[in-house]
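Hi Y.,

Following your request, here is the sequence exactly as I used it, all 307 residues.
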Amino acid sequence: MQIFKNILVSLDLTDMDDTLVKYSNFLAKAFRPDSITFIHVMETVEIPDELAEAFPDMDKPVAEIVREEIQEKVDDLFDSSADVKRGVNVVVSHGSTTEGIVEFARKNKTDLALLGKKIGYDGEGGVARKIVGLIPSSVLLVSEISPQGFGKILVRMDFSAISAIALQTAREIAEATGSEVHCHHVYKLPLNYFPQQSPAEVQRLKKRLSDYVQSSYKDFLKKHKLKPGVPCTFSMDLHGEEAQIIYSQAIKTGSDLILVGSKIKSQLANVILDSTSEKLAGANKSIPVLVVKDRKKSIGFLKALFD
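Below is the corresponding structure, written out as C-alpha cells. Let me know if you'd prefer a different format.
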C-alpha cells in the first residue's frame, strides 16, 4: 500500500535545507511517492530603484534566481535514482509563508509535509508551528540531527478515532521500513483527587489502572477493526504533562519517531492543534514527530473557517 503519494518539503534558504533535502531521499526510497515538491515562499518585498540600479546585471526576477539556487541544491543532494513516479519539483512563490504552503497543500492533495525542527540552527520555529496547525496533510518534523530511518515508533494512544488512524499509519510505515511499533497511553489522574497514599496503595492503583488500560485497548482495537499485536503501555499524569511524559517514554524505549494523531480544535486559534500535539512538535524536542491528520476533516474545517 502506498502511504504517502504526494510529499511537500518546506525550505527556508537556511542550512536546515540541506538536512531536509537529504532526508527526502529516505522518504522517497521508503514510501515511493508519486511526487516530491520542494517549496519556498518568498515574502513580497519592494526593491527601491536605487538598489536595483546597483545591480544592473541582475536581469532575472529574484524568484527565478532563488528557484535556480534551490534546484541546484536538489540536484546535488537528492538521489536522482529514487523512484518518484511523477518526478521532483521545485516551486518558489510570493506571499505569506504559512498561507502559501497551506494553500499549496490543499490544492495539490499533499499527503505529507516535511518541516524542520531547528535544534542547533538559528530559528524559533514559529512559522513551522503555524503550518503544522493549519495544513490539512500529515506533518513530519525532523531536526538537523535526526537519523534517516525509523527503528522504533511510539504512538500516542488515547483511544480516539484519530488514534486509530495514527496506529494504522504507524503499522503501514513499519511495513515499509521494518520498524517496530508500540503505543503509550497517558492516563490523566488529577493529583488533588488522590492525596498522599502509601506505597502499597499506589501499587494497587497502578495495577487497577493497568488492567483498565489493557481492557480499553482491546475494546479500542475491536471497535476500529484493527489487528492486535502492537503492545500498549501506560503512565499516570498527575500534573498535566502528557507531552513530556510521551517524549520521556520515547527516550526510555529508544524510539526514533513519535507518532501522534491530531485532534482539531473547535475554537478559533492561531494554531488549530490540540495542546499535546503542539508541544510534541516544539523545536526543543529532537526526536522526529509525525503529526497524523484526517485530511478530509481538516480540509472541511479549514473551509468553514476561511472560505
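Residues 254 and 269 are 34 Å apart (CA to CA).

Thanks again,
Q.
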